[in-house]
Design a protein that fits this description.
This protein has 477 residues and is of the alpha/beta class. It has 3 domains: 16-191, Glucose-6-phosphate isomerase like protein, domain 1 (Rossmann fold, 3-Layer(aba) Sandwich); 198-318, Glucose-6-phosphate isomerase like protein, domain 1 (Rossmann fold, 3-Layer(aba) Sandwich); 328-475, Rossmann fold, CATH 3.40.50. Helix content is 51%, strand content 14%. It has 20 helices and 13 strands. The strands form 3 sheets. Strands 2-1-3-4-5 form a 5-stranded parallel beta sheet, with helices on both faces. A 5-stranded parallel beta sheet has the order 9-13-12-10-11, sandwiched between helices. The protein has a 3-stranded parallel beta sheet with strand order 7-6-8. Helix 2 runs parallel beside helix 9, helix 11 crosses helix 14 (297-318) and helix 15 (328-343) packs across helix 20. The chain is globular, with a radius of gyration of 22 Å. The termini are far apart. The relative contact order is 0.13.
C-alpha cells in the first residue's frame, strides 16, 4: 500500500485542511497582544489586577502554564499572581477560593469547545463565590472573562451574563496547538507582562517551517521517527526546574494526543533529569531522549513553534490524524454514566470504584511488567508538595526495581493530556492506581451533582474505558 492510499493518511489530509490556523498563530499574535493590552487598560480603570485564576484543562491550560513559569520573575516584580486550576478535587478548590483576592481578581474560564465539563462546573462554583463576596452576580460578572470559540455555550453564557469580556479563539486552531492564541497569551498580557521577546523568534521559526522543506522541525521529526522505526518508541523528556517541567508537560500533551491513536504513537515520558540519566545509563533499547534545558523568553517562542510543526511531520510519518482524539469522547460518555450512579446515592469513594475483579493487586505487578513496559502512576489525590514528593520517590523506586521508565499522571487533568495515548496508543503501559479520598465538598450551582461527585465520576469513567480497552490496571492502595 502506498503512503497516500492509507485510510489514516486520507483522514489526516481532510482534517488537517480544517485545522491550519496554528501555522500562522505566531505572526497573528502581535495583533492579539495589542487587543489584550487595550482590554487590560479597560479593566485597570475599574480595579487593580493582582490575582488571576485560569480555569482550564489540557490545551486550554498547559500552554498558559509554560508562559507563566517562563515569566515568573516579571510576575513577581508586578505583584501579580496567576494560578492554573485544572482539577476538580474539592479540598484544592476550597483552599483556592479561600485564598482568592476577589476585589482585585480576574477569573478566566478557558475551553475551546465551550462544553468541557470541568471548567464549566468550576466556573459556576467560582461565579457563585464571587457573587457572594462582591455582593451580586452583576458585580461578579465584571471579574470574569471567557476564552472559547465563537457561539459555544461558554461564549454565549459570558455574553448573556455581561461578563467583563468574551475572547474568541480561532476555530481552526486545536487546543494543544493554541499556545500562541489567547489560551496561551491572555493570562500573561492581562497581568501586564511584556511578552515581546517571545513573539519575534516564534514568527521567525514559523516562517522557516513554512518555507523550508528541511526546516528545524522537519529535522527534529525525522530524527525522532528514525529512532521510533528502530524500536525506540519511548521518549524521555527530562526537566530540571518548574519552567522546564511546564514545557515538558506541554510537550507531553502535544505528542500524546496528536500521535497516540490506532495502536501507534511515540510515548512521551516527562521526568526529572536525575531519573532520565539513570534510565539512559542502563542502556534500555526502546528509549530515546531529549532535555528541556532552561531557555530565554526569546528562545521559547521558536521552540514552541518548532515542536508543533515537528509533531505534524511525525503524524505524517505515522499516518495518523494529529488533530483528533478519538478515545476522549468515550471517557466523557463514561463520566456522564458514572455521574448518574453517584447522584443516585452511591455511597462509595475512590477505592470502592476501583474494587473491580479486572484490576490487579499490587503483589501481581511483577508478573505484569514486560521488557517493553512503561509504568503510569495514575494519581487521584490533592497535588500537595508532600504528595508530589511521594509520587516522585515512588516513580524512582519503581524504575530502580523494574528497570523500566515510569511517568506521573495526575487526575483529572491527565484525561485531557496523555489520556488519549493511554487508551489509543501502543499497549505497553501498566497503569498503577493511587488514590486518596477527597475531603470536603462544594455544590455546583445548577448541577444535580457536587464537585466531589464530579471528581469521583471522572475517576470511575476513566477506569471503565481503560478496562473496556483491556489496559492493565493495578490497585496500589
Amino acid at each position: 500500500m502506498s503512503e497516500n492510499s492509507s485510510p489514516a493518511f486520507a483522514k489526516m489530509s481532510t482534517q488537517s485542511a480544517q485545522m491550519t490556523g496554528w501555522r500562522s498563530s505566531a505572526t497573528d499574535a502581535p495583533y492579539l497582544v495589542a487587543h489584550l493590552q487595550r482590554f487590560r487598560a479597560q479593566i485597570l480603570r475599574d480595579y487593580p489586577l493582582r490575582d488571576i485564576i485560569v480555569l482550564g484543562m489540557g490545551g486550554s491550560a498547559l500552554g498558559a502554564r509554560v508562559m507563566i513559569d517562563q515569566h515568573a520573575a516579571q510576575l513577581q516584580q508586578l505583584g501579580v499572581r496567576i494560578r492554573i486550576v485544572d482539577t476538580t478535587e474539592p479540598s484544592t478548590i476550597i483552599a483556592i477560593l479561600n485564598d482568592f483576592d476577589a476585589q482585585r481578581g480576574l477569573v478566566i474560564a478557558a475551553s475551546k469547545s465551550g462544553s468541557t465539563i470541568e471548567p464549566l462546573c468550576l466556573m459556576q462554583v467560582f461565579f457563585q463565590h464571587l457573587s457572594q463576596v462582591l455582593g451580586s452576580p452583576t458585580a461578579a460578572a465584571q471579574h470574569f472573562v471567557s476564552i472559547s470559540d465563537e457561539d459555544t455555550a461558554l461564549t454565549r453564557l459570558a455574553r448573556a451574563q455581561n461578563w467583563r469580556g468574551a475572547l474568541v479563539s480561532p476555530a481552526d486552531v486545536g487546543g494543544r496547538f493554541s499556545v500562541m492564541t489567547a489560551f496561551g497569551l491572555a493570562p500573561l498580557v492581562l497581568a501586564g507582562v511584556d511578552i515581546s521577546e517571545v513573539l519575534p523568534s516564534a514568527a521567525d521559526m514559523q516562517k522557516r517551517c513554512l518555507s523550508d522543506e528541511r526546516c528545524p522541525a522537519w529535522q527534529l521529526a525525522t530524527s525522532l521517527y528514525q529512532n521510533y522505526a528502530e524500536g525506540r518508541d519511548k521518549l524521555l523528556i527530562s526537566y530540571s526546574d518548574q519552567a522546564t517541567e511546564s514545557f515538558a508537560r506541554w510537550l507531553e500533551q502535544l505528542i500524546a494526543e496528536s500521535l497516540g491513536k490506532e495502536g501507534k504513537g511515540l510515548i512521551p515520558l516527562p521526568m526529572t533529569g536525575v531519573r532520565a540519566d539513570k534510565l539512559q545509563y542502563r542502556g534500555l533499547s526502546d528509549l530515546q531522549s531529549i532535555t528541556c534545558a532552561p531557555r530565554t523568553a526569546a528562545a521559547l517562542g521558536a521552540e514552541l513553534i518548532r515542536w508543533m510543526f515537528a509533531v505534524e511531520h511525525l503524524a505524517h510519518y505515522l499516518q495518523v490524524d494529529p488533530f483528533d482524539q478519538p478515545n476522549v469522547e468515550a471517557v466523557k460518555t463514561a463520566t456522564r454514566r458514572a455521574l448518574d450512579i453517584t447522584t443516585a446515592g452511591y455511597p462509595g469513594g475512590l477505592k470502592e470504584f476501583s474494587r473491580d475483579s479486572r484490576i490487579a493487586c499490587a503483589h501481581q505487578l511483577p508478573d505484569l511488567v514486560q521488557q517493553e513496559s512503561y509504568l503510569v502512576l495514575m494519581s487521584w489525590a490533592p497535588e500537595t508538595p508532600e504528595n508530589l514528593a511521594a509520587l516522585e520517590q515512588l516513580a524512582a523506586d519503581l524504575e530502580e526495581c523494574y528497570q523500566r521508565p515510569a511517568v506521573i499522571a495526575a487526575g483529572p487533568h491527565y484525561l485531557h493530556a496523555s489520556g488519549q495515548l493511554y487508551k489509543g496508543g501502543p499497549d505497553s503501559g501498566i497503569y498503577l492506581l493511587l488514590s486518596q479520598e477527597t475531603e470536603g465538598d462544594l455544590p455546583i450551582p445548577g448541577a444535580p451533582y457536587s464537585l466531589r461527585q464530579l471528581y469521583h465520576a471522572a475517576f470511575a469513567g476513566d477506569l471503565d474505558v481503560m478496562l473496556t480497552r483491556g489496559r492493565p490496571l493495578v490497585r496500589m492502595n
